[in-house]
Amino acid sequence: MSRPLRIEYAGAWYHFTSRGNERNKIFKDDQDRETFLVILGESLEKYRVELHGYVLMSNHFHLLLHTPIGNLNRFAQRFNTAYTVYYNRRHKRSGHLYQGRYKAIVIESDNYLLELSRYIHLNPVKIKQIKRLEISEQIDYLRKYRWSSNLGYGLLGHRKEFVCYSNVLGYLGGDNKGGRRGYREYIEESLVKEIASPFDNVKGQIVLGESGFIEWLYEKVMKRCKPDKIEQRKSNELVDEISQEVIVETVCKIFDVKRRDILKRRSLSRAARMVCIDLCCKFRVYHKSLREIGRELEGLTVGGMSQARRRLWEKLQVDKKLKSKYDLCIKLLNK
Predict the structure, then answer these.
(1) Phi, psi for residue 210 in degrees, rounded to 5
(2) Does domain 241-333 have CATH number 2.170.130.10?
(3) End-to-end Cα distance, the chain
(4) CB 79 within 8 A of CB 17
(5) Residues 70, 172: contact at Cβ < 8 Å?
(6) Which pLDDT score is estimated for 205?
(7) What is the overall mean pLDDT for the chain?
């Protein structure tokens, strides 16, 4: 199995998790959990990494991390190694504690930070024996669960000094009485209705974000790295490459226009041309630079493509017929 691609840059946000080897427990009692949090706090301070949420389960943990200086790997190596050494000494064992390397998914904070925080904090009530309880009992269990940052989000008396609460609470009015109450309601309402997992939207198993964020990530971060062949192949798996010809043919079919009409500069089918430009960027940016894509579209500049995509986005907000055709193109290309 190829190892997962590591993406590091200053300001990155991550969903970080590790599981016990062969799904074995990594916490045997509360002393293990307390020590884990001490080591976590020391590692956060040493490497200037921010923690915005966590939960400890019996055989795995979840962290919501922000790396202002882009040093996730150094933090992870120290943190996971330090806890493994402690655990092995205390329980008189040897060998790997975790199942392989840690898993870190880069996330687009603006769109997924609040949702991902909820996912992390709901973990304690997702285990089978708790899910079978009445909703009122699940809420009570969640309110009493000690090994999570959820309590600190709702109640000042349960806060940890190494957890940052303000960013997530900013989406619900701020770190104040109203924001904290709103967060508690946001979490507990999710027990009443079924919510989709944010990880349904993960691209290539390594990025959780919208297309614009992924384009930026690939162009500004991943293409400047020097990955090995395995990692290069993994980065290309974010989206399968679709040729320009296939995209053009799809747009021509849906908009009922000729190929020449959407490729020439002063096209009479401007809406179709803008859709073509947008889809070429959306589906091909992982394999070619924006500049290369522009050259293949009759010599368009990167700025010209950005303007076309911005105009398209504005039209999509008000033109339902155009939006319907645009969505159909994406559906066909995703098959």
Answers:
(1) -80, 170
(2) no
(3) 26
(4) no
(5) no
(6) 76
(7) 87
Predicted TM-score (pTM) of the model is: 0.69
Give the bridge partners for 61, in sequence order: 18, 56
Contacts of 76 (CB under 8 A, 6+ apart): 16, 102, 104
Contact 163, 54 (CB under 8 A): yes
pLDDT the model gives residue 1:
40
Question: What CA–CA distance (Å, rounded) separates 126 from 292?
Answer: 46
User: Which of 102, 100, 14, 83 is CA-nearest to residue 43?
Assistant: 83
Sign of torsion over alpha carbons 232, 238, 244, 249: positive
Average pLDDT over residues 301-311: 85
Domain ranges of the chain: 12-201, 241-333
Residue 305, token pair as written in the block: 């493509």
Residue pLDDT, tens place only, 36-73: 999 999 999 999 999 999 999 999 999 999 999 989 99
Q: What class has domain 12-201?
A: alpha beta
Question: Please, which residues have CB within 8 angstroms of residue 225's CB and are 6 or more apart in sequence?
Answer: none
